[in-house]
Automatic annotation (TrEMBL):
Pfam families: SET, zf-MYND
Zinc recorded as keyword: yes
Protein name: AGAP012638-PA
Superkingdom of source: Eukaryota
All residue ranges annotated as the MYND-type domain in the record: 183-223
Cross-referenced InterPro entries: SET_dom, SET_dom_sf, TPR-like_helical_dom_sf, Znf_MYND
PANTHER family: BCDNA.LD29892, SET AND MYND DOMAIN-CONTAINING PROTEIN 4
Length: 452
């Protein structure tokens, strides 16, 4: 009650309010079209299916598309508005206008010899791949010791610019500011044509295909919880619930099968560097995430209590609002495993999640802007240094490439930076952040010699 938890429901009045805010941004004296599009999208997400509000928001979005010469997108919005029972005449005129403009643009393109498609160069691994793990160069090995736990070592000398890992994320969640700009499933930037989930106000998709893939892969278990979880705990809890959802769908939506699998799993035998990814099932891949470090034994009891508190709320909501409720009620052992997993993944996310970023152009310089948070099974094996020798770069499709940024000697460990590079942060601040979030005291060269 104190957290003011409530079901996420469509709300046409709120949709109308958001659309009118969008209209203010669209006004000829303001012309902040992207802000307007975001507000129209939020209005679409809040509106009920087939409602006047939804049709008006699509119609307004079509106006912006026309203004921005996005003719195909404009036609798509006209189609969506009509599908939502748009009743006015305005769209007929707009459709004519846009079809003419489109025909002209096509004629112009046909007569122009200059066709310059955007060619994006994709990085490739700089060395032959591991036979069992094509996402990793064959010179990388996973080792384990007292000081660092599991860590990644190179068996050959590496030079600056080498690419040694390119990995797909196991799970990702959009950051708030991109919720009404990017597809919640593929994260493609499609603000002009997003369509909403009909069950919640938090997820929009670039296509029916992504909507249905997301639903089957995880959204059916998170749909009713996302808004509350986001309002109370922000992104971390959203990845947590998404990981639980993926775990359950991986076992054919059967939590009992997941429980049996976990009961039989020997965690000490799971090693993503030696596993055969060419033949790996979804369950094998799930195992590599399930065994990521939680640091639970190193955490202060205050934090463990905090995680338990969060997990209890999430668990209660899952029981109340998803189809897992009756299953858990009938089987206390499954209920317990669900709570254990929520608590475990909350902590896994805390110390293993990475930002997915793109290069944004802001006031005369490019800066890395993060649009999502994700978890990568093998990249999670990289330990931290405030003077790292590798750097992660997000590729357009969400894969993460690991580049060497300082020469690395044969037999040395690869070190990533957990957003605590000595160039950007003072030692005291880095150390307190690392100890708070990752439960270790950093003894890297930058900390030892107090690099400026
Ligand atoms: C993303 S995991 C890295 C892999 C981890 N060593 C393992 O065994 O799973 C992050 C955790 O590794 C440990 N870690 C990372 N960098 C470290 C370092 N420089 N020194 C000691 N421990 C470190 C901390 O426990 C941290 O929370």
């Amino acid at each position: 009650e104190q957290l003011n938890l409530r079901n996420d429901v469509k709300d046409n009045a709120k949709a109308a309010q958001l659309r009118s805010q969008g209209n203010k941004m669209f006004h000829p004296n303001v012309k902040r079209y992207i802000e307007a599009i975001k507000l129209y999208n939020e209005s679409i997400a809040f509106s009920e299916k087939g409602s006047t509000e939804r049709s008006l928001a699509y119609a307004n979005r079509s106006t912006i598309c026309l203004k921005m010469h996005r003719f195909e997108d404009c036609l798509e919005n006209i189609r969506l508005a009509r599908e939502s029972n748009y009743s006015g005449e305005k769209l007929n005129q707009r459709e004519k206008e846009v079809k003419n403009a489109l025909a002209k643009a096509r004629n112009k393109n046909a007569s122009s010899s200059k066709v310059s498609p955007d060619v994006v160069e994709e990085p490739e691994l700089s060395y032959p791949v591991k036979k069992n793990a094509p996402q990793v160069a064959n010179c990388l090995e996973l080792r384990k010791n007292e000081e660092y736990g599991r860590h990644v070592v190179t068996t050959r000398k590496l030079k600056v610019g080498d690419v040694v890992m390119i990995e797909r994320p196991f799970v990702t969640v959009l950051k708030d500011s991109f919720r009404y700009v990017r597809c919640d499933f593929c994260h493609g930037e499609r603000p002009f044509t997003l369509i909403p989930c009909e069950g919640c106000t938090m997820a929009m998709y670039c296509s029916e295909e992504c909507l249905s893939k997301a639903y089957n892969k995880y959204h059916r278990y998170e749909c009713g919880l996302l808004r509350d979880m986001w309002e109370v705990f922000e992104e971390v809890s959203l990845i947590d619930i998404r990981m639980i959802a993926i775990a359950i769908t991986t076992f054919d939506n059967n939590p009992e099968a997941l429980k049996d699998h976990l009961d039989a799993l020997d965690e000490s035998n799971v090693n993503g560097f030696t596993m055969d990814w060419n033949k790996a099932t979804q369950q094998d891949i799930f195992n590599t995430v399930h065994v990521l470090t939680t640091n639970q034994e190193r955490r202060d009891s205050f934090f463990v209590a905090f995680y338990i508190f969060n997990a209890t709320i999430l668990h209660t909501l899952v029981l109340e609002r998803t189809e897992l409720g009756p299953v858990c009620e009938a089987n206390p052992a499954t209920n317990k495993i669900l709570l254990d997993l929520i608590l475990r993944y909350e902590q896994i996310v805390e110390c293993n999640s990475k930002l997915l970023s793109f290069n944004a152009y802001k006031v005369k310089e490019y800066v890395a802007e993060s649009f999502a948070v994700g978890c990568y099974p093998l990249i999670s094996m990289l330990n931290h240094s405030c003077a790292p020798n590798v750097q992660r770069i997000t590729l357009p499709d969400g894969r993460c490439a690991v580049f060497v940024i300082r020469p690395v000697l044969e037999g040395s460990q690869l070190f990533d930076s957990y957003e605590a590079d000595h160039i950007l942060n003072k030692r005291a601040m880095r150390q307190s952040m690392l100890s708070f979030m990752y439960s270790f005291r950093c003894t890297c060269e930058a900390c030892t010699f107090n690099y400026p």
